Amino acid sequence: MIVTGGAGGIGAETVRSLARAGATVTIAARNPDAAEAVAVRLRSETGNDRILVSALDLADLRSVGAFVEAWSGPIHALVNNAGIMALPSLERTPEGCEMQFATNFLGHFALTLGLRAHLAAADGARVVWVSSTGNLFAPVFWDDPHFLFIPYDPLLAYGQSKTACVLAAVAMASRWASDGICANALNPGAIATNLQRHTGGLKTPELLRKSPQQGAATSVLLAASPLVAQISGRYFDDCNEGIVQQQRPADAPQGVACYSIDEGNAERLWSMAVELVERHRD
């Protein structure tokens, strides 16, 4: 199994739970030295020495390509967990992609696409896309996903990237079903981790907060539980399928926006993402 961003927050808790269940887990992290320190601790705590570390920078498609090239063997679960949130100012990758879209979605898309054969070899693999209620904030801005014309807004950019994660799961569920690959998206909930350093995660009402362990629960469910075997193309909240919203809820955000699970949008995003990855592959 692979967990991107598995060295901190809900990623580390996801690794912990999967390792305790006996899985071999690779932490894919931008800073492998820091990740190795986490892996050492998790090996000791879980009694599982099969927690590995590999370098991966999702904002750099060359790094993604190197990770894919180095991989061997089947993959039973890929948890696309790593992410950044609400960068205060507009940042771009060297290829000119908006940084949240590139990190949260496009890098994961390129990674998953590159690992397809290894996922298919597992005969029943699962791809888990960690989204959020941010999908309720914004659709994909088809004509300007990188904010070349639209005035940059941190939460709109974040919302777009998380909508893209849900749409990726929807498209993948139908496109890769013949390979025995299931794909689902989820909202982990409001957890005060380093991800929320730009938004003041501790400002979330106490009743709505989750611990990192609680936040990881839905990821672990989708990655490993027999309860959801063969379930694909869905969005989950609190270990249950999320409510489809026709407009943003007036109270606490919950569920998934109707545009985030639209099959036409999913196919449109797939085509756009393939073009972007191929354009910037080298």
TrEMBL record:
InterPro entries in UniProt: NAD(P)-bd_dom_sf, SDR_fam
Pfam families for the chain: adh_short
GO molecular-function terms, A-Z: oxidoreductase activity
UniProt keyword Zinc present: no
Keyword Protein transport listed: no
Keywords: Oxidoreductase
Domain of life of the source: Bacteria
Family: Belongs to the short-chain dehydrogenases/reductases (SDR) family.
Name of the protein described by the UniProt record: Oxidoreductase
Organism this protein belongs to: Caulobacter radicis
